[in-house]
Amino acid sequence: MKIKEKIIEVFLFLCASITILTTIGIVVILLYESISFFGSVSIIDFFTDTKWTPLFSEKHFGILSLVSGTFLTSAIAIAVALPVGLTIAIYLNMYAPKSFRKTLKPLLEILAAIPTVVYGFFALTIVTPFLQNIYPDLETFNSLSAGLVMGIMIIPFISSLSEDALYAVPKSLKEAAFGMGSTRFQTAIKVMVPAASSGIIVSVILAISRAIGETMIVAIAAGQQAQFSLDPTIPTQTITSYIVQVSMGDAPQGSIEYKTIFAAGLTLFLFTFVLNSVSFWIKKKYQEKYE
User: Fold this and answer.
1) Which label site among 9, 208, 235, 257 has the fewest CB atoms less than 10 Å from its CB?
2) What backbone phi and psi angles, to 5 degrees, belong to 56?
């Protein structure tokens, strides 16, 4: 039995190590290729120049153009997903019957299972023409429709995780609020949401990370023109869509143009790493506070 237990323990340890080793491998590759890239391109220009044209004859390597596109589409997505997702979470927790909650919540989570390429074509063929009827000057490729559809895509991240956080709030708090004469809405807004704020904040940060890392929706619907602008009606390019563009063969492997995808990937990794670290810190802080 001891030998079998030891074998199982080693096997489980190896399975747990896969994620760590994979992350280390990704970081090593990004750092190695990025160091080679920054040997030819000034890191100061990389983070301060507002033009990104590594595939043009006149080359500029200013990542700010891609960062602005990534920020804009992600901001639009969160502006859509946060109020809708939080409203759904409050409804499921405070108003919906248990049977309806058990049915609706899995249906909402199906949105997260739809391939993102489907969302991309939905944004390009349905959402954009609809918005053009309202705003005729809207270009065919734009960050507005991409951001709106990204928001729809990440609604389950906020609604499901926020509802779990609300469900974890002790029932005694809810009952005490009702006992003092509070309505359901007052209990939800003034008692439940503040008590579950740590989980809700974590869900929002994870949703932002998901939006920042989205590829196919922005590649299809937002266009591939890197522009340093916060105008949602014009084409834009995000870090992920640029990586897709170059990875499809637009630059010879080993060239400085090809190495830009590793520098861009490292920048994206740092953004998501910071966001995930912040969410972990917030969760840990609130757990210590209430223990």
Assistant:
1) 9
2) -100, 170
